[in-house]
Design a protein that fits this description.
about 400 residues; mainly alpha; about 0% strand
């Protein structure tokens, strides 16, 4: 028993020293952790494909991709939309290159910013997927560093670094490194939040404009700027009027894209129309439809439903944890962003891809980061990271259990 107590004391001392180092070198810590986690996810994905797939071909594969296994690993499921747009633009694909299920509208499903940046980056990188993965990972790295700086404005440094670390170790964080728009989306979102909280509203127009041509859920995220307008305006009417002007200016790039699609296809919102044809259409009764659809699909949706309820529970717990830790309520901007990203996806009538939609929600980890016991915090981080490794292995296979 004496030896056990001594060992426990040593472990506690190591955890306390590690926590002190993290507080003293936050950006270095985040950089090293980002690199180690990405390398671990890469190894997990390559091992899973080598173990369970023949000829490195995932169950759900696109007819094109990077010739490099380490890069092609990051191109499953919706990566095909971005690859099609980055490779061919928005013109109709030749019939020989059409996807068997999605037809010649494949390249119209993606909003333009991420594929456009990937295409431009490929001039230097030599490969579209390589350029896209670099963009995703740099956006994630810069975003999580800015997230730390953002959180330290509203909470103590220990809570901020803990939240950022748990975010990087979260079960679906690897999706922000994939050839998908999620990494870029996260970086732009944190940039927008930082400017809303620390700078002039005029400065935040740029990240919001970029968000609107990155993912279709972004218009709802602009509501996070509304509280700032109420704080700075004399009357509610003036606040709403200023917000509408702000939103209209930020929406100009998206409007130009819609006009282009109107001329090209006859449908300015074809990216939404395609979602509707796949059973994803926004409606107030869609939440009930999502549960009915999940019940019909059976085991394939169990993981995503579990992620939904777990995420909502973590967010509610984090609201109380923030209040206990800081003495004030969580900033309303954080709450708006979290609610939109957690709830809005199921208004499309499906839980499909829910882990990917909820992956950027950093507030989920405030409650865990508020744990003051270093050993318990380390245990939570370890469990989360092990789950993320398993999730990466499953996701890289392209099965329908994790989209």
């Amino acid at each position: 028993m004496k030896k056990d107590r001594e060992l426990l004391r040593i472990v506690k001392g190591i955890c306390s020293q590690a926590a002190a180092y993290l507080r003293a070198h936050p950006y270095c810590t985040l950089l090293v952790l980002w690199l180690l986690t990405r390398l671990t996810y890469l190894a997990a994905g390559l091992w899973a494909r080598a173990r369970w797939l023949e000829n490195d071909t995932p169950y759900y594969t696109w007819s094109y991709g990077s010739p490099y296994r380490a890069l092609n690993l990051w191109t499953v499921w919706d990566s095909g939309f971005y690859y099609a747009t980055a490779s061919h633009g928005f013109e109709y694909l030749p019939s020989a290159e059409r996807h068997i299920e999605l037809g010649h509208h494949l390249q119209h499903a993606a909003l333009p910013l991420y594929p456009m940046l990937s295409r431009i980056g490929s001039v230097l990188a030599g490969d579209i997927v390589f350029a896209g993965v670099i963009i995703s990972n740099l956006s994630l790295l810069l975003g999580v560093m800015l997230l730390y700086k953002l959180l330290t404005r509203d909470a103590d440094a220990q809570l901020a670094i803990g939240c950022c670390i748990l975010f990087l170790l979260s079960p679906f964080n690897f999706m922000l490194s994939a050839f998908l728009a999620e990494g870029l989306f996260f970086g732009l979102l944190i940039w927008a939040l930082y400017l809303i909280r620390s700078s002039t509203l005029l400065a935040s127009i740029l990240p919001f404009a970029a968000l609107l041509i990155t993912k279709t859920i972004s218009p709802m995220l602009m509501l996070s700027a509304l509280p700032r307008f109420f704080k700075e305006s004399i009357s509610p009417f003036r606040a709403v009027a200023r917000f509408l002007i702000f939103a209209a200016v930020a929406a100009m790039p998206l409007l130009i894209h819609c006009l282009f699609l109107k001329r090209l296809t006859g449908d300015p919102f074809i990216f939404l129309s395609l979602q509707a044809t796949w059973g994803r259409e926004f409606s107030l009764g869609a939440i009930y439809a999502a549960f009915v659809r999940a019940a019909d699909e059976g085991p394939q949706r169990i993981l995503e439903i579990a992620v939904f309820f777990t995420s909502v529970a973590l967010f509610i717990y984090s609201l109380f944890a923030w209040k206990r830790r800081t003495g004030v309520s969580m900033p309303v901007e954080y709450i708006v962003v979290s609610v939109v990203l957690l709830i809005m996806p199921i208004f499309s009538g499906s839980f499909e891809s829910y882990p990917r939609y909820s992956a950027p929600v950093f507030t989920l980890f405030v409650g865990l980061a508020a744990i003051r016991n270093p050993m318990r915090l380390a245990a939570a981080a370890t469990i989360s990271f092990l789950l993320s490794i398993a999730a990466m292995a499953v996701w890289s296979l392209g099965t329908r259990f994790l989209i």
